[in-house]
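Quick entry, no commentary yet.
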Amino acid sequence: MTKGGKPMKSNTMQTEELVKKFKELFGGEGKILCYFSPGRVNLIGEHTDYNGGHVFPCALTLGTYGIVRKRQDNKIRFYSHNFSGLGVIDTSLDDIVYSQAAGWTNYPKGIIWAFAEKGHPIDSGFDLLIYGNIPNGSGLSSSASLEVLMGTILNDMFQCGFSMIDLACIGQYSENNFNGMNCGIMDQFAVAMGKKDCAIFLDTSDLSYDYASVKLEDAKIVITNSKVKHNLVDSAYNQRRNESETALAELQTVVDIKGLGDLTEEEFEAHKDAIKDPVRQKRARHAVYENQRTIKAVEALKSNDVETFGKLMNASHISLRDDYEVSCEEIDVLVDLAWSVPGVIGSRITGGGFGGCTVSIVKNDAVDTFVETVGKGYKEKTEHEAEFYIVDIGDGAGFLKEAN
């Protein structure tokens, strides 16, 4: 992955520096283990995962590193290299409860809690240093990356025997029930099950999935970070989910479906009047049409029809902007600017919404123009500096090495 045209550090270089810091903080004795868990970007299929539809995410080569060592007592010591000013945060297995004061440690604590809920209580503490190179608030799933990282570490250290799909589900369960964010399964699944150079075509209604190759011959995937995150994202996300669930219940009075993803566009149009509120009708329309767009987009990609894939990405953004109303002014500026650049095949918002990032497919010979045009235009219109990432698709979470 490159940021502003510069190569980012390799896993090897990154872990060596982090192990050195770990030893400074916690001492060098004992077995020190290194893990990595990626971020993710969703190419198409947004806000369909909790509506029983399809998604098409991929894991990235940027993510969250974990350097860890098991302890013989019940003490837990956390340290984030990103928030070094907070120092080492001490807690214990007797204090696995959510609190606002716990900050970022609520995510790993939630996984410890979820393991106990699923029948595998953790019986000794550990020292953990984490470092993430996912931009904060970017919508590239830093929380899911941390959750799956913690799950992978605990599963390994305590030999719990969970599969990677189990760990994805535990991450979602933790975020829903410990952290209070009513997210779907997509983020954790992509982080856990990522595969190099492939996106995951996932049916969230039953967790069946297929890998589709995303080796673009003459184009790149470019993520543009708006550097904006509106703080209504969590509450609005839960509100959208509630609206969708109410619309589903209304539709279920006239048609036999388990989720909005069960409907074709034609079936939705035939039954939409069962949804009494026009806002809820728009939310349901997005979920139904976005699911069908995702199915068509994957078919197009498998047929090497990248142009059609790009048009479906554009239509996805319009629906997220107008029907689901999870975009914002800054993101719309980025997408409009992207659409104006020759060589941009498609561009849309990605992630939960209300800021964060766009994802674009850009022809190789247009990438420099894209970065210059979109960056300059965005600065002029919003006074914010965008960041650009030309991304590589990587593998899911896993063990890296035992430190020397």
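second:
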Amino acid sequence: MTVKKVTVVAGEDAAPEAMESSVELLDKMGLGIEWIWPLVGNEATARGLPPFPEEARAQIDAADATFFGATSGPTVPVLFYLRWGKETYANVRPTRWIPGFRSSLAKPQGIDLVIIRENLEDAYVLIEGEVADLAPLNLTSLTTQKKAHELGEGKFAVKIITRKRSEEVLRFGFDLARRRKAEGFPGKITVSAKWNMLFQTDGLFVTVARELSPEYPDISLETLIVDDFAHRLVSNPHSFDVVVLPNLYGDILSDAAAGLAGGLGLAASGCYGRDYAYFESVHGTAPDIAGKGIINPTASLLSAVLMLDYLGYSQASKSLREAIETVYREGRKLTPDQGGKSSTREFCAAVWGKLK
């Protein structure tokens, strides 16, 4: 197999502790991956460079994928480039409970769903401003029947849902549901939004899902108003297979799903475009535990499972996932967030022990 190149952006605060230990473990697997560490963030500015130099951008462009930690500021430009610059439109966030995960549920057994979050538009186009600036548009509120600029002093945000992006991410969801069905899953896709109020934007997202559905006669389509989905996610998470959500709902509710399984320290993600992908843990930078060596690397390692599969190392991906699951089932080398006393490196060493 051709050697793959992976750029690594460790992030800030405690995130590098998880990333460095994870890359060390992956490197010991002997896959021949070339790890490239671009000079970005604080390290770049310390040398008088911008936080995202052109050389780092070129290294990302030349790589087969990027392995990303978590950012609280200095490496945000890198993350923005990986999302909007590389057009990674599908943010895939699996939620799967395995024995040993510290779930808050009495019966978490059997939770195994994937939330796909549209990754590029919705409220995340980040167009905001003063309400008064809306005056030239002469917009009327459907609820108050007042002109938008007459609602009072305040701010506005723009929400954009396009047919192109909706179709891309929804087709990705249908295709994933089909692949999972071949592995024994139900072959079901749930699409949720607030189309009963946001008739045009969220309504378009659901409409596109219904238009695509006949192309996938083997996949059942369920459409839920997002309030109802939030309730069912908590009360009956076992009923879901593949879920596709607009950006903002996907961001929020995938974190809620992670909480059902055992917390953000376990939450992996992969962000996929037409010709590029990057992989990152869902948790933040955890500044409160920076330097303590106890951040849970599971989210990073499970993100690496997705990355290895994407790069074509399917057997290594399977072996790594099984090794992580074995460590959790045994429960002897877990980090404090999961009720254990082990350090980040001790956890990774335990996983390596199972891989050997």
